[in-house]
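Assess this today:

___
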Amino acid sequence: MKAAIKTLENKEAGQIDLDESVFGVEVKPDILYRMVHWQLNKRRAGTHKTKDVSEVAGTGKKPHSQKGTGRARAGYARRPQAVGGGVVFGPTPRSHATALPKKQRELAMRMALSSKAKDKKLVIIDEATAKSHKTKTMAQVLKKLGLESALIVGGKEIEANFARATANLPCIDVLPSQGANVYDILRRDTLVLTKEAVSALTEKLKG
């Protein structure tokens, strides 16, 4: 399938062939859902922790007499019923990562790319470079391209001026080709790929 190539100045810069096995596969929402779920689970820190009775500071001495005070029975101040006492069955550090086969992860990536191509939300540019590192200048450039919410995927490395110019733009994300992922592609309205990014993703994902 053919796609037009544009410059950052929104000028025509030729055409490019997109591999059908990467940019033209059938999109299945359940596969994309599993992939996003896998990504979000994997990035959770899992550092939540509460103290149980053995970890709470305090004495094990009985706080008051068993009878005659008019108060409820109490064995020690660290008991779960007391304020500041230990927590019963509280969270402990653990991994939230779930399993997803590699083939399904690769398929989900192809589907994410295909969904953008199908919805006419895929833009191919010749290169992601900037003469100035000024955010205001870059905002004007992207406005001409009609980009308000976009993920821009460059080559192996993002050019320094371009990275600085886009760093503070809201709803504009920039990633190198090896960092492209399903979640970031789907969370933005438009996907922008450089020619280098198209080549790298095609080589990685083609069947």
